[in-house]
UniProtKB/TrEMBL annotation, chain B:
It comes from Brassica napus. Signal peptide: none annotated. The chain crosses the membrane at residues 30-50, 56-75. This is Dolichyl-diphosphooligosaccharide--protein glycosyltransferase subunit DAD1. It is found in: Endoplasmic reticulum membrane. InterPro entries: DAD/Ost2 (IPR003038). Belongs to the DAD/OST2 family. It is a multi-pass membrane protein. Pathway: Protein modification; protein glycosylation.
């Protein structure tokens, strides 16, 4: 039953995701509880941290699962250890230890642990970061709840309030600290909870103007709410939509509980937030699960407005079974809703736009099963897909809480029925004239053994009439005729519905090539199916002997039908690529030999130069001229080196860049050298 | 007859050699440079004949650069040669420095 419920829930979530505006949300059910047992009960009996322990135990408590006896021993040890020596733990640990203590009641009583109180109060005084404020203030609230001995109060509540408020921003978000300009909606939720704690711990009334400013920032925050198409609202931030929205809802609940004047929040957004959490389904992550259940618990029991959810156990109406349509209205946890009336405002058929089949039908209430049901459907309610629009009216008078519902809930409904099939017949016609050669009536409810024969000049005609229970023509989603040859080659044709009947005409003259010119015995199979059709069928009609002409040379062969139908999914043949054969290069040694040979003429040149007695007497000896001459020759050597590098490694552009730089350098140096030489020769001439 | 031809050849060779040694040193340097360039080109051609002209670009660049520099050196020699009066260069510059500068730029 649980597995069935879970499967249906998953299907509903998928349906909700696919169909945009119309969707169904189910309240928290037993499938959630069984999943919680898997997610939250640790294997070795102990939790990794107090924060995880708190989240798990709170979720199990909200869901009403009692596993405390197993887990309490190890966790309680941890809690008592932290609470016994609070000075050695952080504020966060003390806070979570107190939270777990609230659930497990490891340590309670009249006497207030003074060291815990003093640590928390010091924490409030010294706090600079939002998280420090949060842990210390909420810790004090928890101590006040759990230890009934004394009256703890915050001395300078207004100062604390103001310093927390100082971290807020104009768009409703909160910063974590005054240094960091990053703000987040998650922090806003923490801030609301903290401020609510400050208000409840204050010894006297806090100035109303401060509370008003807080209400204004809540309203501003709601301006930044985001929306999906199916009407769900959420807050998104870097921590993720579930954590952020849950934090805001926790904050709102604490704030509404702590102060006397009412908090006005837009009702449709509250319902949207509830739908967001219900639409999450069953989260696999422990933190998401905790946030979902905690937020829904806050929505279920708060002082601003409690959302009610309309859900349907089944969205299929069967016209043959004539069962009533059942509707449930409950809170998000499936608890009983107050007195209200449910009305089916409209039933819009997907085909006809705008006109509604049912109008303003009141649903009857069955107190035993707490469901509303619609017994009878009007005479013109045919099979097909509909969108039912429900309206809920809450009986305001006798309620202490404010309940809120959606204005209109749109639900996709599918109506199914039995389709009658009449006048089913199959015939072989002569092509030109259209006269019937052989015709057989079919009874599609059972397999038949009709035997026909045709040649390529004739046609095959299948015709039938499909009608809905109300007598309208029915167009099925799937209507196929399959012809299967003896050699397992199959062909599928669509049976088209138009006007009054469904018909398929196969002209074999045009189909000869498609049938691969295979003559012989073909099995005929007809398939008709639709979501609204309760009696979908697949029937073997019989055989037809086809006489087709011989295959010409160029026609396509029928594809090889594999013996194993799954062999089309095996890996395909490996492709071997053909690369261009690389050019044959000469042997390496030969190339090296010739490299040596090339150098020989250069050496010969140098030897010849020395033999000729070439002189370098004109090389200047004075310092200034010598350096420029050396630089000049060095520069030329560098250019030659650059050529070698270009050959070996560099590309043209880097070479050109380097060459231009060297060229400019050489220009200057060379000019200097030549001017020195010219001056020297002038001196010689004049001397 | 054979002896006379060989003797003639030897005489011819000797006369050429003596005439050549009279040329100034500058021109001999240029001649040697030309010989060096041509030899480099010839070795590359021999290599190509041996192993085929696969990277044809390399062969062309090597041979043509050698041949080009040889040709430019020959031009320089012509212009610098003092005995070459009829080939009075119709270049823009007439002094030695200008001619060498033109050679360097061309190379």
């Amino acid at each position: 039953m649980m597995a069935g419920g879970l499967a249906r829930f998953v299907v509903l979530i998928l349906a909700a995701a696919i169909c945009g505006a119309a969707s169904v949300f189910q309240p928290i059910s037993d499938s959630h509880r069984s999943a919680a047992l898997d997610v939250f009960v640790p294997v070795d009996g102990s939790y990794k941290s107090l924060e995880e322990a708190y989240e798990a135990l709170k979720t199990l408590e909200i869901l009403g699962i009692d596993k405390k006896s197993d887990l309490s021993s190890a966790t309680c040890e941890n809690v008592v250890k932290v609470l016994a020596s609070p000075s050695s733990s952080t504020l966060k640990d003390v806070f979570y230890a107190l939270s777990v203590n609230g659930i497990l009641k490891c340590k309670s009583g009249e006497d207030v642990p003074k060291d815990i109180v003093s640590k928390l109060q010091t924490g409030v005084k010294d706090a600079k970061l939002l998280l420090d404020f949060y842990y210390s203030v909420r810790g004090l609230v928890l101590v006040k709840e759990q230890f009934s001995g004394t009256d703890i109060s915050l001395g300078d509540a207004e100062t604390v309030f103001r310093s927390i408020k100082a971290l807020s921003q104009s768009d409703g978000r909160w910063r974590y600290s005054s240094n960091n300009p990053e703000s987040s909606t998650f922090a806003a939720g923490l801030a609301f909870e903290t401020l609510a704690g400050v208000i409840s711990l204050a010894p006297s009334e806090i100035d109303n103007s401060l509370i008003q400013t807080l209400k204004t920032s809540i309203t501003k925050l709601f301006d930044s709410i985001q929306k999906y198409d199916d009407g769900t609202f959420y807050f998104d931030e870097s921590e993720g939509p579930i954590s952020t929205t849950a934090s805001v809802i926790r904050g709102l609940k604490s704030f509404a509980a702590s102060e006397s004047t009412g908090l006005n929040l837009p009702g449709d957004k509250i319902v949207g937030l509830a739908k967001f959490f219900l639409g999450v389904g069953i989260p696999g992550d422990a933190k998401d699960f905790f946030n979902q259940i905690d937020a829904l618990a806050c929505l279920e029991d708060n002082r601003f407005s409690v959302p009610l959810i309309l859900s349907l156990p089944s969205t299929v109406i069967s016209l043959t079974k004539k069962e009533p349509l059942k509707v449930k209205v409950s809170t998000v946890f499936g608890s009983k809703a107050p007195a209200l009336s449910v009305k089916l405002a409209q039933a819009l058929s997907s085909g006809s736009k705008g006109s509604s089949v049912i109008n303003n039908q009141e649903l009857k209430f069955d107190a035993e099963s707490a469901t509303y049901f619609l017994e009878s459907f009007p005479k013109n309610f045919d099979v097909g897909k509909y969108t039912f629009v429900f309206e809920i009216l809450v009986d305001e008078s006798a309620n202490e809480k404010v309940y809120i519902t959606e204005a209109q809930t749109k639900v996709p409904i599918s109506a199914t029925g039995a389709i009658t099939i009449e006048n089913a017949e199959i015939a072989v016609l002569d092509s030109d004239v259209g006269s019937v050669e052989s015709q057989k009536k079919l009874d599609l409810t059972k397999d038949e053994a009709v035997s026909l024969s045709a040649n390529h000049l004739q046609k095959l005609r299948l015709s039938l009439q499909l009608t809905t229970p109300l007598g309208h023509v029915f167009k099925p989603h799937q209507a196929f005729l399959k012809l299967k040859h003896e050699s397992q080659v199959e062909h599928i044709f669509l049976v088209k519905t138009s006007g009054k009947k469904s018909e398929l005409v196969l002209d074999f003259l045009g189909l000869v090539e498609k049938l691969y010119y295979l003559s012989g015995k073909y099995e005929i199979q007809l398939t008709i199916g639709d979501a609204s059709m309760e009696n979908s069928l697949l029937s073997n009609i019989g055989h037809i002997e086809l006489d087709l002409p011989e295959r010409p040379e160029k026609a396509a062969r029928p594809p090889l039908q594999p013996t194993d139908p799954y062999s089309r999914y095996v890996p395909k043949a490996e492709i071997s690529h053909i690369f261009r054969v690389p050019e044959k290069l000469p042997a390496k040694q030969l190339s090296l030999v010739f490299l040596g040979l090339i150098v020989l003429p250069f050496i010969g040149f140098l030897i010849g130069l020395t033999r000729l007695g070439v002189n370098i007497k004109s090389f200047p000896s004075s310092v200034g001229a010598a350096t420029s001459a050396l630089l000049f020759h060095g520069g030329i050597g560098a250019v030659l080196l650059l050529y070698v590098l270009f050959w070996v490694k560099l590309d043209l552009f880097t070479t050109l860049k380097a060459l231009s730089l060297l060229g400019v350098f050489l220009l200057f140096v060379g000019h200097r050298t030549l001017s020195h030489l010219a001056a020297a020769s002038n001196k010689l001439k004049s001397a | 007859m054979v002896k006379s031809t060989s003797k003639d050849a030897q005489d011819l060779f000797r006369s050429l050699h003596s005439a050549y040694s009279a040329t100034p040193t500058n021109l001999k340097i240029i001649d040697m440079y030309v010989v060096f360039a041509v030899f480099t080109a010839l070795i590359q051609v021999a290599y190509m004949a041996l192993v085929g002209s696969f990277p044809f670009n390399s062969f062309l660049s090597g041979v043509l650069s050698c041949v080009g520099t040889a040709v430019l050196a020959v031009c320089l020699r012509i212009q610098v040669n003092k005995e070459n009066k009829e080939f009075k260069c119709k270049t823009i510059v007439t002094n030695l420095g200008g001619i060498v500068a033109m050679f360097v730029i061309a190379v």
